Here is the input.
Amino acid sequence: MQSFPMPHDDPDHPHSLLPPEPALRVKALETILAAKGLIDPAALDAIVDTYENRIGPKNGAAVVAKAWSDPVFHAQLLEDATAAVSALGFYGRQGEHIVAVENTPGQHNMVVCTLCSCYPWPLLGIPPAWYKSDAYRARAVREPRKVLADFGVTLPEGTSVRVWDSTAEVRYLVIPMRPEGTEGFSDEQLSALISRDSMIGTALAAEPAS
Here is the structure.
């Protein structure tokens, strides 16, 4: 993705001494700490991978799967997502105020944080590097369909795209559409179809194996 300058990337601002991309800033800090012998890069990579791709997204997938299979919970999630997910044990810092938005044939939802990288950590784990990039933050608002195409998602012409701006006050969870052919699936089977990206809105739920 092409990088776009952001307002805070001011050459006269002290922050400009750091690399502009958040991922590069983190890498620079990691390099310094590793050089001082304060961290083990391999161990750090394993921890980040665990929380970015395994533990975190599984929580959100469990929530979506329950919403797909339990109409009462589905209604509670849309009415007050914070209370609904807290009742399942998913709460804490970066998850104080969650709003669930549901994809339908007529509307596809996508989440971005235009100012930094606000993200529902208790549900999705650590935000991926691309979510924090200047390019995604700028393009998701201006040309969401092109961004979705970059992720391999092509929507029908009649489906509108709504972009939600995550902030420190409110974070969003996208409920992807339930794939056809999943009637009778257990919550565990449904969870396997739900990816982190589908709960951000940059992917669709996976189709069940035939």
Remarks:
- Confidence is low (pLDDT under 50) at residues 1-19.
- The domain at 20-200 is CATH 3.90.330.10 (Nitrile Hydratase; Chain A).
- The CA atoms of residues 2 and 9 lie 16 Å apart.
